[in-house]
Amino acid sequence: MVPATPRLSWAERLYLPEVLRGIAVTTRHFVRNLALHILHVVGLAKDRRAAVTTQYPEERKIYPQGFRGAHRLTLKPDGAVRCTACFLCATACPAKCIHIEAGEHPDPSVEKYPVRYEIDTLQCIYCGMCVEACPCDAIRMDTFVHPRIWGYDRTDFVESKQTLMTRSRVLAERGREALMEEMLRDYREDEAAAAEGR
Ligand code: SF4
Ligand code: SF4
Fold it and tell me: What is the DSSP letter of 16?
């Protein structure tokens, strides 16, 4: 049986009262948040939250264990990149955002290595297909940090082989929190540099 369509009252069919009610709610939140932000700037009412959105990266939610964060390239025990530049991840990537340039390794026991390995995080959809496709566990997304979330140019969002390898080093030596601290430090430094350049 098809459920009966709820009938609107005469006042509801005018729409105007509901539109005004919506504007009033939005305005109330706007004024409240603006006032709280101003108070926070002068050091007052710090215990009262100004906005309901999470102020990432300063604030973070607790992520589930399966969270797919920023990528990293895993390392061999000697610190070299584990990737063999086989292109399986780039082939599996539905967003076509992995760019690899393969090179001959000076060590004859290593067939190939990535001279360049880049991920365009503006195109990435964080599906994890690259991780699934890799036959040698050379790429992971277990960092629990987001990729770069700020930038002034498209190229700022392209993560290089060095960036991806450094994540593995920091993770092994100092853990996930250190990865987040490094990201926040870079963020603040770039923000300060940009503010000085204005
Ligand atoms: S997570 Fe998905 S979209 Fe992103 S690089 Fe890997 S395969 Fe490509
Ligand atoms: S990360 Fe894995 S799948 Fe991608 S090129 Fe390197 S070895 Fe191949």
Answer: H
Residue 74 Cβ < 6 Å to ligand 2: no
Pick the atom of ligand 1 nearest to 141's CA: 1
Q: Categorise residue 112: left if φ over 0, alpha if ψ from -120 to 50, beta otherwise.
A: beta
Distance CA 84, CA 102 (A): 8
For the chain, 198 residues long, the average pLDDT of each consecutive 10-residue run is: 71 86 96 93 88 76 86 96 97 98 89 95 96 97 85 91 96 92 87 79
Q: Which residues contact 28 (CB under 8 A, 6 or more apart)?
A: none
For 108-112, which contacts have Cβ atoms below 8 Å and span 24 or more sequence positions? 110/84, 111/84, 112/84, 112/85, 112/86
* Ligand 2 lined by 93 (C-beta under 6 Å): no
- Going from the Cα of 63 to the center of ligand 2, the distance in angstroms, rounded, reads 26
* 88 neighbors 79 (Cβ within 8 angstroms): no
Q: Give me ligand 2 centre to Cα 135, in Å.
A: 7
Chain mean position to CA 108:
38
Helices first, then strands: H and E counts in the chain: 6, 5
C-alpha span between 176 and 110 (Å, rounded): 30
